Structures are given as structure tokens and as C-alpha cells.
């Protein structure tokens, strides 16, 4: 028999027989103990895996109730040891419970309750505790990395897939292109005619605009002021800087008449 199985079975049997010590003699209880240990080992051995305590746990569960016959491994002990089940379950508290015998742990729970009360648990070594701590930190780190990678791939995949153009949109664009080309040709012809007409009108306006200016220049009177007799001499094209401003302009009409 596996050592872990023998140890777990022994603690489960202690839990069941402890309340009976005040009601039954030691010889009767010793017989019941030997039968229980053998029957429990036979019941748990097919699904027992020391490296995976949770494997087969539901099949090793023993459901105990005041209003029902106990499992065969316990009921056989009642018959051979002459212990009434009604007295036994009453000493255990007279309420329904589930007994779990797993590698490294023996626990009980109320039917339908996910919370277990540990009766016995194998104490872990310091190396095992450190290993579990390291594994927990590694799992947490990998979970954070996985979340970050998924978040980046989700935000970066929005524009990777090009949109396919449907045949209907292509035909629509083709017809639109033909109509646009036709409209462009018509507009070009109209624009050419309009531009030629506008250019002829502009040339006529240009001639009519410049003609009167030549006439006005020809008809303008030239005035020479004979009263100014001072001559300014230039030294080789050099000029001086005047401190005052020089006003240039046309002589008023009154001076012309004088």
C-alpha cells in the first residue's frame, strides 16, 4: 500500500471512530479500525495519485447521512463490528456530511457546500512552500504578459485588412467616369467658345481703352516756365544732398494763365 494512502486513510478512520470511544469498548473499536482501514484502502486505491491530489476526488467521496445507509465500506464494518449506524451518525453530530480522502488531505463538507473543513493536512516542507510561491509568481507574471500581448494585438489589427471593392462599386465608378468624361468634354467645348468670345471682347475693350489715352496725350498742352532762369551746375554727374524736400508737380491753372 502507498504510504500517502495509508497515512490519509488512518486519519480518516480516526475522525470516524473518535466519538465512539466513550460508547464502545476498545476491542470492538480496534476491530472496527482494522476493517475500516482495509475497506477505505480498497475504495481509494483505484483513483489514488500522490502527485495529483485532486484526481478522482469525487469518486473517493463518502456521503454520510442520518436518514440513509452509509457507503458499503462503512456499512460492512457496522455489520461485522455490531455497531448501529444510527448511533454512530448521532455521535458524529447527526447531520449529513461528505468525507473526502485525498493525498495529503482529509476534509469534510456539508452537502452542496463548496467550502471544505480540513481534518488533516500534510505539512509541507520549506522547499515545497518556496516552490509553490515561485510557481504562483511565475503564473501571475505570464498572465500579465499574456494580457498585454492580447491588448496590443487587438488595438493594432484594426487597419491590417484591406477593404475589397465590390463589382457594383466598380461599375458605378466606371459609369461615373464615363459621365464625368462626357461632361468634361462638353464643359471644355463651352469653355473654349466662351473664352474666345471673352478674348475678342477684351481686345475690343483694350483698343477702346487705349485709344482715348493717346488722344488725351496728344491734346495735352506742354508748359515751359520761362521765369526760372537759375541754372544748377552738375559736377560730373555728382549731386549734393538737400536738407529740404523738393516738391514736384504741375503748375496750377492760375499760374498758367499768368
TrEMBL record:
Start and end residues of each Anti-proliferative protein domain: 7-111
Biased composition (Low complexity): 166-202
Superkingdom of origin: Eukaryota
Ranges annotated as biased composition (Basic residues): 205-220
Region (Disordered): 165-224
InterPro entries from the UniProt entry: Anti_prolifrtn, BTG-like_sf
Pfam families: BTG
Family: Belongs to the BTG family.
Protein name: Anti-proliferative protein domain-containing protein
Annotated organism of origin: Fistulina hepatica ATCC 64428
Organism ancestry: Eukaryota, Fungi, Dikarya, Basidiomycota, Agaricomycotina
Amino acid at each position: 500500500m502507498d504510504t500517502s494512502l495509508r497515512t490519509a486513510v488512518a486519519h480518516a478512520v480516526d475522525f470516524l471512530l473518535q466519538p465512539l470511544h466513550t460508547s464502545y469498548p476498545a476491542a470492538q473499536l480496534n476491530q472496527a479500525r482494522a476493517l475500516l482501514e482495509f475497506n477505505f484502502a480498497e475504495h481509494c486505491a483505484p483513483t489514488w495519485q500522490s502527485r495529483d491530489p485532486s484526481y478522482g476526488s469525487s469518486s473517493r467521496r463518502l456521503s454520510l447521512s442520518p436518514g440513509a445507509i452509509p457507503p458499503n465500506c462503512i456499512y460492512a464494518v457496522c455489520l461485522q463490528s455490531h455497531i448501529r449506524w444510527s448511533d454512530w451518525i448521532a455521535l458524529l453530530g447527526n447531520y449529513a456530511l461528505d468525507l473526502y480522502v485525498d493525498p495529503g488531505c482529509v476534509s469534510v463538507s456539508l452537502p452542496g457546500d463548496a467550502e471544505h473543513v480540513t481534518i488533516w493536512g500534510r505539512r509541507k516542507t520549506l522547499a515545497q512552500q518556496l516552490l509553490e510561491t515561485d510557481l504562483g509568481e511565475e503564473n501571475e507574471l505570464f498572465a500579465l504578459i499574456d494580457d498585454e500581448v492580447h491588448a496590443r494585438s487587438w488595438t493594432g489589427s484594426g487597419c491590417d485588412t484591406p477593404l475589397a471593392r465590390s463589382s457594383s462599386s466598380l461599375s458605378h465608378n466606371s459609369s461615373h467616369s464615363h459621365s464625368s468624361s462626357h461632361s468634361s468634354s462638353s464643359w471644355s467645348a463651352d469653355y473654349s467658345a466662351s473664352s474666345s468670345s471673352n478674348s475678342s471682347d477684351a481686345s475690343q475693350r483694350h483698343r477702346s481703352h487705349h485709344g482715348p489715352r493717346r488722344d488725351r496725350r496728344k491734346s495735352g498742352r506742354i508748359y515751359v516756365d520761362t521765369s526760372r532762369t537759375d541754372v544748377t551746375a552738375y559736377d560730373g554727374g555728382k549731386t549734393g544732398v538737400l536738407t529740404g524736400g523738393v516738391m514736384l508737380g504741375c503748375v496750377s491753372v492760375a499760374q498758367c494763365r499768368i
